[in-house]
Amino acid sequence: MSEAALLTRVDRKYLLPREAAAAILARADPATRVLEIAGQREFAYDSVYFDTPDHLSYRLTAQRRRRRFKLRTRSYLDTGTAYLELKTKSGRGSTVKDRMGYDPADRARLTTEGRAYLSGLLEGHGHDPVLVERLRPSLVSRYHRATLLLPDGSRATVDTQLSWGDGGDRAIALPHHVILESKSLGPPSGLDRALWRAGHRPSGISKFGTGTAALHPELPGNKWARTLRGPFARPAHTPKESS
Fold this sequence. Notes:
22% of the residues lie in helices and 33% in strands. With 243 residues, the chain is α+β, with helices and mostly antiparallel strands.
């Protein structure tokens, strides 16, 4: 597991058809390895994002505000573990991630302990701690992830079975697409160069930002406009209609 950790990294995300991703990965360096835990190579993730009724967290992100925050619970369905995670941007633009262990049964709500934890963090990062009282589940993101360990020291994640929902009547799924994210120490990895040769360039996709914009076209989505013109460019539908 320690080999997969990168202390200072550059992330590049690509949204591409599943067949295209498979073709590129099939030509990867034979020394590439897949992270394996207890004989398993693909793991199911479930993330519940929290926002205010007026989508403050989303708007701060969409408007590229220097001080912004993103709150979610992330559940690792195969191991039955979960975390409450807060990502903040400092005034200097650096990203800070704080998290605490969380009961998976509470994944879609903020517990008393969770609220107390978040209030202190938000205040410490220059946000009004009272915001905690306004936060409620706004987006559920589900996917399966495999992690690649590349011979040049970089790594990549491959997310499949992508879906988003708001917990109500809005949902969207991209079963025929993949989010491939390279994580290198700075210079482009061999995988990045292979993607570029095949005509794929990093996109601005964000599971929280793009997912919210796709489900709520009434919100400003200029930051993700190019991505939204791709496979997301169809109406959100009810889960019943998608089955």
